[in-house]
Amino acid sequence: MTYIQTKRNGWCYLSTIMDLHSRRIIGYSFSKKMDTDLVLKTLESAVKNRTITGDLIIHTDLGSQYTSDNYNQRLTELHMYVSSLSRFH
């Protein structure tokens, strides 16, 4: 999640998913709200850009958007699993 300060709308948020094999951004979404809907839209964007051929692992931080029931339910439906969550020290 990247925070972007704008003159018109104040803080906005860019959510991205990177394919670590190709090192390319495969899904993204931009919003005025940093909420679960933002990361779900990002996930759907990534799914549209990549064919899922098997179980996948996704790495996220500890934000409430990523630990929400809705987000984790969608990951389960897509056969994606959280391998670890980042921790900031």
Structure description:
The protein has 89 residues and is of the alpha+beta class. The chain has a single domain (2-85), classed as Ribonuclease H-like superfamily/Ribonuclease H (Nucleotidyltransferase, domain 5), CATH 3.30.420.10. Helix content is 30%, strand content 38%. The protein contains three helices and five strands; from the N terminus they run E-E-E-H-E-H-H-E. Strands 1-2-3 form a three-stranded antiparallel sheet. A hairpin with a 3-residue loop joins strand 1 and strand 2. The mean pLDDT is 86.
Short descriptors:
89 residues; alpha+beta; Nucleotidyltransferase, domain 5; 3 helices; 5 strands; 38% strand; globular
Give a brief outline of the structure.
This protein has 89 residues and is of the alpha+beta class. It contains 3 helices and 5 strands, in the order βββαβααβ.
Output the radius of gyration. 13 Å
Which structural class do you get from the secondary structure elements? alpha+beta
> What CATH architecture do you see?
2-Layer Sandwich
In CATH, the homologous superfamily goes by the name Ribonuclease H-like superfamily/Ribonuclease H
Low-confidence stretches: none
Strand order of the largest sheet: 1-2-3
The share of residues in extended strands comes to 35-45%
Number of helices: 3
